[in-house]
Amino acid sequence: MRKIVLSTDNKNKLREIREILEDLDVEIYGKSDIDGLDFEVVEDGETLYDNALKKADAMAQRVDFAVLADDTGLFVNALNGEPGVHSARYAKEHDDKKNREKLLKNLSGEKDRSAYFKTQIILIDEDKNIIPIEGVCPGKISEVEKGDNGFGYDSIFIADGFDKTFAEMTHEEKNEISHRARALKNLREKISKL
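The structure corresponding to this sequence follows.
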């Protein structure tokens, strides 16, 4: 069985990734599952790709397994792509509620609420080959927060073709269409070919 170490301890991310890859012959570990991986990577890249690669590379230097790192951003067209690569700390700190409040305030009165989520995944296999994978989910920003499921910007993002936010969906519904789900489906194909 192939072992893959994720460069995260985010329980929501781990759960989503494990659910989407559950029928593959892989074991998914978080950073804290393996001794000596309590390092932090400064995510100061210009792009999601830069940040994902930094995290994956830092992990690949420390383990002999395949490693996986991702970076995700919400890109709002009327805000010239903000918050983008700075999505996690849009309100200057890692606070989901403050990030959502700032985004809704900045979009106040704006007619164009179109946006997209993008997840960039970097898989580095056991032979240290770098395999980039991405997933995009287009949609729009709601006027108000709705729903109690999910995390991050889920309560204000409505995917194209739907009339409810990610936070109003079940995990199963979100895992069918989300940016991370799309990236992970692409990842599944890559892993099954490795």
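The chain is about 30% helix and 25% strand.
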